[in-house]
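User: Please run a holo structure prediction.
Assistant: Happy to. Please share the sequence and the ligand.
User: Here you go; the ligand is uracil.
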Amino acid sequence: MPVLDPATQQALAARMRFYRDLGLTEFYRRPVDASPAENLGAPGLASVTWDTPSPTINSQEPTIPPRKPIFTPPAASPSIPVADRAAALRLIREDIGDCTRCALHTGRNKIVFGDGSPNARLFFVGEGPGADEDSQGLPFVGKAGQLLNNMITAMGLKREEVYIANVVKCRPPANRTPEPDEANTCSPFLFQQIDVIQPEVLVALGATAATYLLGQRQPLAGLRGRVHAFRGSKLIVTYHPAFLLRDPRQKKEAWADLQIAMRELGLQAPSRG
Ligand code: URA
């Protein structure tokens, strides 16, 4: 354990009090080789449509064999006053800093923290940034993002009203699935974002999001179609928009999942003009 000088100790204590006052009770420490100062941190495609679902054909997303739990997600933090949510999100971003906690930092251009309303009732969780997200620093801005936008519109919502973030905040090379150590290193920040926003409903987009929110690797088919609980929010699992772009026949199934989310939020789909 490194010994901190009195000034650093004071600054660290002040920051922890600030976190505590915001209701954030879980801290994420960088590896001990970081200096104390580093530990502290500074205080579409138009053609892609969410169209009327086509008849179901029973092809499934490739399933992942069940494995033992990867980790136990920590319990949710106490509630945070609405006015402080934007400030709390900024603090989390500050803590992430110019992150080098996992190997993904070596290939990234921009950290993709998350985007949307700090007061969102609905929070979408994806897997990790792709090339477009990595260059813009925003989640879901490529082709899959265009489809996600269409899904949000179909729910009668605006993108600015929801919140969107990923399991990992840096782009995995060649868009591969994040490795467990990468996801386990990064996901505590996602959990903090969820704790701050406290959405009524979380939608896990695809198997990676479902795995790291639920703490278990299970085939998506067994997780869809019902409401799970996660850190005080209702969690619904559906297909990743990128998968739906590859297999649009599954949009009908995804729409059924989104309707569960809408029911939980008390929303009705806008009538088609
Ligand atoms: N896919 C994801 O999972 N997240 C993004 O932000 C973009 C594509």
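Confidence is low (pLDDT under 50) at residues 29-73.
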